[in-house]
Amino acid sequence: MNDPTELLGAYALDACEPEELPEIDAALAQDPELRRNADQLRAAAARLGTDAATEPPAGLRARVLGAARQRRARELVLELYATLTDTLLDVIDALPAAMLSATTANGLSVRDLVVHCGAQESLLAQLHGNPTIPELTVTDIDARTRELIAHFAAESLDDVVAFLRHVNRNWAANPLNRDTLVPCVGAELSRHDALVIRAFESWIHADDLRRARGLPTVAPSPAHLALMSDLSGRTTGFGLVMTGRSRPGHTARLVLTGEGGGEWLVAMGGGEPNAVPDVTVTAHVVDWCRRVGERIAPDALPCRIDGDHALAADLIQAASAFATL
Fold this sequence. Notes:
By secondary structure, the protein is an alpha+beta fold. About 55% of the residues lie in helices and about 10% in strands.
């Protein structure tokens, strides 16, 4: 065995080899003076570590946690976008050729609805400074859809889908900066919110295609519904302004039940909401999201209204202000 006194320094720093520890422990148990020396060395090593430590800068913890939350938010939005656009493409790939002329919920044929999805996707890319068809510059979504239908008139559905996949991949490859503002549906939205809207539209149109085939609709996962419902809860106040239904001085409480739902106080005329709402509208999160996507009419939304029914009607009408479906 090595002389235990020669190993005390390493022992104090927890740097001994595993096979040396039993012998050192046995020696310390038999020699009180050696034990005192070992304890003193350990205490000195601990003080050195304390003396070398520095106080972290003020606000460092908040900045680190904030950056981590932003990264997680970016990951969730990209996952939402990728999942729902991939699902839409899977639904398109499964379309029978005989179904392409069938009419969908927004009045377009199945084939033209796929082109419309390309119009929506390419418009967002264009507004973000990355046009996919240089000569296609119109920003009104209906006019853009008509131009793109004409553009692909002589092409196969496979060509349309290839175009849609190309634009999807372009978005997925770009870094997502939540604070970057993008002109979108009459407002400036963060790129984060713009991608949530695009994912929202992909879900709605995938269900449109399922309905055209007589298949059941499919709700997004609770995690994805949470992102979509949060966007609606945060932006419905602005939607009231956009649709001419602003109610200054009034506040609505929106309660969305089910997994992925939540609660929001909506200032109906801008500014900050009041602590006590004038009306509470309670609906299931999936029903509300379908109302946002204009697949449930305002007067057909299953909901409970507590308070001013006229204010509730304005809130429900304004829910679809950002829809381009």
